Structures are given as C-alpha cells and as structure tokens.
Amino acid sequence: MRKFAIAIHGGAGTILRSMMTAEKELSYKQALEDAIKAGESVLRKNGRSMDAVEAAIISLENNPLFNAGKGSVFTNEGKNEMDASIMNGKDLMAGAVAGVQNIKNPISLARAVMEKSEHVFMAGLGAQEFAKKINAQFIPDDYFFVQHRFDQLQEAKKSDTMILDHTVDKEKKFGTVGAVAIDVHGNLAAGTSTGGMTNKKHGRVGDTPIIGSGTFANNKTCAISCTGHGEFFIRSVVAYDISCLIEYKGLSLKKACDIVVMDKLVKIGGEGGLIAIDAKGNIELPFNSEGMYRASKTQDEELFIGIYKD
Ligand code: ASP
C-alpha cells in the first residue's frame, strides 16, 4: 500500500503579511485546517482520493472566507455564477459545470456530471436543469450575499475592470478553492471550484471548470488544481502542460511546476499558482503572486499551512 497525501488551496493573489490581522490570519488557517481534515479523514480510512478532494472542497465552499460556493464573488450584474470541475486520475473521468447559480456545492454537481451523465461539461441553464434532475441542493440568493463581496463589485465597477479576487481590495483577500490527493491505492484526483472574478461579464467562464487548464489528474503523472487570472491559465493550458512535461519529457513535478508557473505564465502576465501531487506522492505548491492560501498533509508528516511568499 502507498502512502496518502492531500493538498488544498484557497486562492492566490495580493496577500501580504502587512495587510493581515492576527485574527484574520487565524480564521484562514483554521478554515484550511478544517478542509484538510475533511479530506484526510477519508484518506486515513483507506478511502478514495476522489472522495477526499470533494470533501475538502465542500468544506471550503461552505466557508464565506473563500471565493467559491457561499463566498462567491459577484458578476457585473450582481449575480453569483459559479464554476467547478473534478477529475479522476485512475480512469481520466471528469466532470465540470460553468455559470451555475444557487447551487450550494458546485463541486458535487461537477462530480454528478461525471458520474450520472454521459457528458463531461455542462453550462448555464442546462446545468441547472441537470442539477434539478439529480436533486442537487439549491439554495436561495441570500445565502450567497456576503457584504464585502458586494462592496468589491462596486469598487470594480468604478474602473470597469474584471478583478482577481485578491487584488480588488487589499484589505480583503479571498479566493478560488481546490484540492488534489493521492490515496493508499495510488489513485490521484483533483478538483477546483470558484465564483470567478469580481465584475466578470455574465457568461464569462474562467479556467476553473476547464479540464486541462484549471484542473487535471492522471495516475501516470500528477493531479493539479489552479488558481489565478483564468484567461491566462486557459491560454497556457496550465494543468495539462505540467502533466505533459512529466509524461513526455520525464521532468520531475518540481521542475515542471517551475517552468509553467514561474516562467511560462510570468512571461504572458498570468498571475496565480497551483497545487500539485505526483504519482509518487510528492507535493508542490508554486505561485508567482504575493501569496496563496495553501495547506498540505501526508500520511506521516505534520500539517503544513502557508499564506505568504516567505
Ligand atoms: N481562476 C479563477 C478564474 O479565473 C479565479 C481565481 O482563481 O481566483 O475564474
């Protein structure tokens, strides 16, 4: 039997120590620890990486601190349109949803697309209809109303730009969420969930639900979940690029991550980062922004939690 490992992120961006209070830092750390524990408890019972990834992401989606599920940012029209995807490294099965509203846990809907439909990717009204059919949990608008998100939208509207969650208001830094895991059976899985970017246009879809860009998992190589300025991550096909560097060039996970996150993305102006686990259980958490909410835990090692660059 192999050893299990799990890593999660809560978004990357302008996250500076100088702008954080001790109290806020503590609540982020607690939220990250809770999410890791949710995933770890599955893996410790010899459970599947897919279940661990979903459990960790549900914990983050239910926490208003992060830009996913409950804490999702607002579109230009003041709505929440959420994207999510999940992938199983064992059989390359995947599911994704884009632009869904009033869904409590978009990651579970993405998983349902994978397991209960013949499709991989469903968007908008069609995805909502599918959600009704499978009895996904719908939740009213009020649940998603978080005052600072609304304030962020008003700020972003002033400059008429779409803004990465963490850069719009340096006092408030929240983010997309994701998880990657390897279980004791040697199977990898990855998932990502987001409200997108503040002030995005109705119908805008980022990298998060795009298999190969925001999420990818293959038992032969690695599991990846990304966070950052989605347009750049789509154009760079980030998650699959890392897998390809391992598969076709024989690079280590670390080298592949360095090339993609610290060089290729930087050259085109793509701010962000990712979490990665390879088939041997190695973990990498690279980012080219000021910070990234991140945590990891392996079977034998202590819990690691990081927020800033240093
Ligand atoms: N990648 C997400 C998007 O572009 C945003 C984020 O990671 O914070 O929708």
Structure in a nutshell:
The strands form 2 sheets. Strands 4-3-2-6-5-1-11-12 form an 8-stranded mixed β-sheet.
Task: Provide structural commentary.
The protein is an alpha+beta fold and 310 residues long. It has one domain: Glutamine Phosphoribosylpyrophosphate, subunit 1, domain 1, CATH 3.60.20. 36% of the residues lie in helices and 23% in strands. The chain has helices spanning 22-44, 49-61, 106-116, 124-133, 141-144, 147-159, 165-168, 230-235, 238-249, 253-268; strands spanning 5-13, 82-88, 94-100, 121-123, 177-182, 188-194, 215-217, 222-228, 272-278, 283-284, 291-298, 304-308. The strands form two sheets. An eight-stranded mixed β-sheet has the order 4-3-2-6-5-1-11-12. The protein has a four-stranded antiparallel β-sheet with strand order 7-8-9-10. A hairpin with a 4-residue loop joins strand 9 and strand 10 (283-284). Mean pLDDT is 92; it is low at 168-174. Aspartic acid is lined by residues 11, 67, 164-165, 175-176, 194, 196-197, 206-208, 227-230.
| Separation, N- and C-terminal Cα atoms | 35 Å
Write the element-wise H/E pattern from the N-terminal end onward. Answer: EHHEEHEHHHHEEEEHHHEEEE
Query: Order of strands across the biggest sheet?
Result: 4-3-2-6-5-1-11-12
Q: Bound small molecules, which ones?
A: aspartic acid
Q: What is the CATH topology classification name?
A: Glutamine Phosphoribosylpyrophosphate, subunit 1, domain 1
Major β-sheet annotation: 8 strands, mixed
Structural class: alpha+beta
Counted by DSSP, the helix tally is: 10
Helical content class: 25-40%
* Shape assignment: globular
